[in-house]
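How it folds:
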Amino acid sequence: MNLLLMSGGRHPYEESTPVLKGFLETAGHAVTVREDAEALTDGTLNRSDVLIFNTLREGDMALDAEQQNALKGYISSGNGFVCIHISGCVPDSWNEYGE
């Protein structure tokens, strides 16, 4: 499977993301790691079978409306979305994320 692993933020993602990437690659997956939210709108997301969030997208890392819509469309199309650790927390700027 092609996996998009979104990383970055206040927690020590620079430590956990490489471990997670290695685990997933050992399991036979192709993993693209990105910290920039443009990955949701530049075609990278649409080439991925599953989106994995190892990030908290709030404050200066919050998703803009276009990125939010891309994420909603991806999920509503039946694609996989996995939140790790704090990634499941609902950002103050996007209550719909929790739904």
In short: The mean pLDDT is 86.
